[in-house]
């Protein structure tokens, strides 16, 4: 077994083509996360005979919402009201969403800043097509000390706001995420071991 933990391990499948994903599925990987809408659309078609749980884990442009929102099980990257508006317009049923929080405050990262989070949470309440289930964050590249602080902070936020799920941790830092009660993490390259 690649991971023996009590959390949902999502295969970040931008690293894999549809045939490799089919092999991973046959080996017991059922949760896949895509970063790009066009890649998700292709793989949905290629793998429509499999009972995959689909996660969207990349930045979602508002103009792509209509193409994918009713095909996914979880959205990890709700980060702005314009995206919520698009989901409200196009979703057939409530979508399980994580709010992406930019706790490292890096300009190149998407996400709601901590200073804006309370107001964002208030505004999200009016959308009945958004089922808010937790928070998501990304650590700081090449800095495990800051990353651990960020994961601890996200854990505390989820507790404060009484949200059950914490989506954090990738191949290089998932062990830190587990330490801080991650319920979902997004692993890519490590799944190559199952294909060898």
Report the count of strand segments: 8
Question: Do you know the CATH architecture?
Answer: Alpha-Beta Barrel
* Oligomer designation: single chain
The N- and C-terminal alpha carbons lie at a distance of 14 Å
Number of helices: 7
The main pleated sheet reads as: 8 strands, parallel
The CATH topology corresponds to TIM Barrel
Principal-axis shape equals globular
- Catalogue the unreliable spans: none
For the residues shown, what is the average pLDDT?
A: 95
Account of the protein in words:
This protein has seven helices and eight strands, in the order βαβαβαβαβαβαβαβ. The two termini are 14 Å apart. The chain has a single domain (8-195), classed as TIM Barrel (Alpha-Beta Barrel), CATH 3.20.20. An eight-stranded parallel sheet has the order 7-6-5-4-3-2-1-8. The chain is globular, with a radius of gyration of 16 Å. The chain has helices spanning 18-26, 37-46, 65-68, 81-90, 114-124, 144-160, 174-179; strands at residues 8-12, 31-34, 53-56, 74-78, 95-100, 130-136, 165-167, 184-187. It has 196 residues and is an alpha/beta fold. α1 links the parallel β1 (8-12) and β2 (31-34).
